[in-house]
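Hello,

Our lab assistant flagged a job as stuck in the queue for most of the afternoon. It eventually completed. Since we weren't sure the result was trustworthy after the delay, we are filing this so someone can double-check. Below is the sequence as submitted and the structure that was eventually returned. Let us know if re-running is recommended.
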Amino acid sequence: MLTEEDARRLVLAEIDAVQDRVEYDLEIQRMEALPFGWIFYWGAVRDGRRGQRPPLGGNGPFLVDRENERLIGLPTCAPVARQIADYERPGATGPR
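-- returned structure --
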């Protein structure tokens, strides 16, 4: 069973893999606890000069299930709340 810190490390490893392909720094921007795990939202760090985040496409949040230790990258094409509900449904295989 994963702890929140374990889940955070998994997500940071995924973000590090993306970091090599972009020219700005990436970070976890917020985390929400769920009954079965956590959801981590991530993106580019604010630009100190302009105070804005550079646009980043395809940075859907990561869902981490504490029981089965799964890390799932959610797509940006569907509402996060619906994807979480789909994942929680008995017999569901994960976000669609």
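-- support follow-up --
The delay was a queue issue, not a problem with the job. The result is valid. Residues 24 and 49 are 13 Å apart (CA to CA). The chain has one domain: 4-88.
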